[in-house]
Design the sequence.
């Protein structure tokens, strides 16, 4: 009877992991070696939910406590149960964390996923206690982006009255140039870009 009960619980956990999780976009917190899952690993090993609570909003805490209790209830029954139960908890925690950001969830990415130099630089800055390298990286990329779009627009502007086609090329370059500067400034002024939902991002881009 015990084996039948264990099998049922494993199937239930598998269903909880795989069903009902939207697959739209991913971010740093969605990786198996990201900070959210790292906190979850500590929590399940210690049997103490405290390390993960900072990653969820107060109103989402009951769901996480329930998932944590389910995980602890079965993870000691076998190595397979432990692996599946832990994955269920990681998935649930990351999904709820992302929901608290108002962001979509795309499932967990493998450890070691390359998320680009800016994300790595942000973590490295915190680890080292110095933000100067990150500042140079970001400002250098932004400056290069503005200069590139400015040069393209300025060159197109010189020929914009030669024909309708030339005018349209100028307008296309101009719109991209202005929108790029606008987006950069909005982000610098406090616009939320981390995990920004696609619909909101599209609307932001349109304006």
Sequence:
């Amino acid at each position: 009877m015990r084996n039948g009960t264990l099998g049922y619980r494993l199937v239930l956990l598998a269903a909880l992991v795989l069903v009902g999780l939207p697959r739209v976009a991913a971010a740093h917190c969605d990786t198996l070696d990201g900070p959210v899952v790292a906190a979850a690993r500590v929590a399940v090993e210690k049997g103490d939910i405290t390390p993960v609570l900072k990653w969820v909003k107060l109103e989402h805490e009951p769901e996480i406590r329930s998932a944590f209790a389910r995980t602890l209830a079965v993870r000691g029954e076998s190595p397979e149960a432990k692996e599946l139960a832990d994955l269920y908890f990681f998935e649930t925690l990351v999904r709820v964390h992302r929901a608290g950001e108002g962001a979509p969830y795309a499932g967990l990415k493998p450890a070691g996923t390359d998320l680009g130099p800016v994300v790595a630089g942000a973590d490295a800055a915190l680890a080292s206690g110095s933000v100067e390298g990150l500042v140079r990286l970001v400002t250098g990329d932004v400056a290069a982006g503005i200069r590139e779009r400015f040069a393209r627009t300025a060159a197109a502007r010189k020929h914009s009255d030669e024909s309708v086609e030339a005018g349209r090329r100028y307008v296309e370059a101009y719109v991209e140039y202005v929108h790029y500067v606008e987006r950069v400034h909005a982000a610098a002024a406090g616009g939320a870009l981390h995990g920004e939902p696609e619909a909101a991002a599209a609307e932001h881009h349109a304006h």
In short: Confidence is low (pLDDT under 50) at residues 10-26, 197-207.
